[in-house]
């Protein structure tokens, strides 16, 4: 019998995550003795020379690799409508089974669907490494970006329906050959989260019924809101000041995120302020948030000068990209492409 042996990196985080995955695979395999629900079979696992080794069934390429190969090789199109229908049915059966056990897959994407047989168009769903029970305290960072459901992006409570969203994105991609929601702009989705109050600060976690320390981990301030982290916390104030961003006369509003965002938008449109400065606010907010996470999650501190230079770099890159886009658009106009569109 052919098998696949996965050697887990000798690192505590990988080890713990793999143990969780083994537990889940054993659990789902036990409930599917006849192997009817298109989920990876785990055969064995053992510890050897300080490495965890997982033995499972041997499968073929994943749908991302295979789709790419199929398109680029110029051969006969594999993903025809009847095959897509068959893949859809298998994925839905798999999800129905997982959901029936109270599990959410949490990372369904073309890389996690593997071909079992090309000729019979059989697939298997893999990677339960991020999966969780619906009754668990749910983590806010789940799913890969292009397949992430709106409720996850917004930091709202979610359930098994997020897997169905991902499946929809996957099918659209296999059908058209284009990723439905390109993840080209993490800054855009971050700003969207900020204005919709979706970044997972302590106040939000408490509102969702999670037991967390309600104080700001950085300054000890009671109640960690998005507005506090991004505008009022000591570190945030230092970053705004060091960047020489034209702050309001009496400082940012300590209560209203919307007031502050409105102010930033006004500055960004003010031609009297240098473009590198007035357009910088999304990256300033992004770096403040990244630094907050680095501190809260990994307990690491960061250097303010490095942060400031990172922000400047990001803004420069963005301005450069905008200029390139304008040139391309102009060329397209001249060549009459715009008229055709
Ligand atoms: Zn603080």
Automatic annotation (TrEMBL):
SMART domains: S_TKc. Residues 1-231 form the Protein kinase domain. Keywords: ATP-binding, Kinase, Nucleotide-binding, Serine/threonine-protein kinase, Transferase. GO terms for molecular function: kinase activity. Pfam families: Pkinase, zf-RVT. The keyword Cell membrane does not apply. CDD domains: PKc_DYRK_like (cd14133). It comes from the Eukaryota. This is Probable serine/threonine-protein kinase dyrk2.
């Amino acid at each position: 019998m052919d098998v696949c042996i996965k050697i887990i990196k000798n690192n505590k985080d990988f080890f713990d995550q793999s143990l969780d995955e083994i537990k889940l695979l054993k659990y789902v395999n036990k409930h599917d003795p006849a192997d009817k629900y298109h989920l990876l079979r785990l055969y064995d696992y053992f510890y050897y020379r300080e490495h965890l080794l997982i033995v499972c069934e041997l499968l073929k390429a994943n749908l991302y690799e295979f789709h790419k190969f199929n398109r680029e090789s110029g051969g006969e199109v594999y993903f025809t409508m009847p095959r897509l229908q068959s893949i859809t049915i298998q994925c839905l059966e798999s999800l129905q089974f997982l959901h029936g056990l109270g599990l959410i897959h949490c990372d369904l994407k073309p890389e996690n669907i593997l071909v079992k047989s090309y000729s019979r168009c059989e697939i298997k769903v893999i990677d339960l490494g991020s999966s969780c029970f619906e009754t668990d305290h749910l983590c806010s960072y789940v799913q890969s970006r292009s397949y992430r459901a709106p409720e996850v992006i917004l930091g709202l409570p979610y359930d098994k329906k997020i897997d169905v969203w991902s499946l929809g994105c996957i099918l659209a991609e296999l059908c058209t050959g284009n990723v439905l929601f390109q993840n080209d702009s993490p800054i855009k989705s971050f700003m969207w989260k900020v204005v919709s109050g979706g970044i997972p600060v302590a106040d939000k976690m408490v509102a969702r019924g999670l037991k967390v320390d309600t104080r700001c981990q950085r300054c000890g301030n009671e109640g960690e809101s998005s507005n506090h982290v991004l505008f009022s916390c000591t570190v945030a104030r230092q970053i705004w000041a060091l960047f020489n961003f034209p702050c309001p006369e009496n400082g940012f509003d300590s209560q209203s995120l919307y007031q502050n965002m409105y102010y930033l938008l006004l500055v960004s449109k003010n031609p009297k302020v240098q473009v590198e400065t007035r357009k910088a606010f999304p990256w300033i907010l992004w770096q403040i948030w990244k630094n907050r996470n680095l501190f809260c999650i990994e307990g690491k501190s960061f250097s303010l000068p490095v942060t400031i230079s990172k922000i400047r770099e990001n803004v420069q890159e963005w301005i450069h990209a905008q200029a390139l886009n304008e040139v391309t658009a102009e060329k397209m106009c001249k060549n009459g492409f715009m008229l055709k569109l």
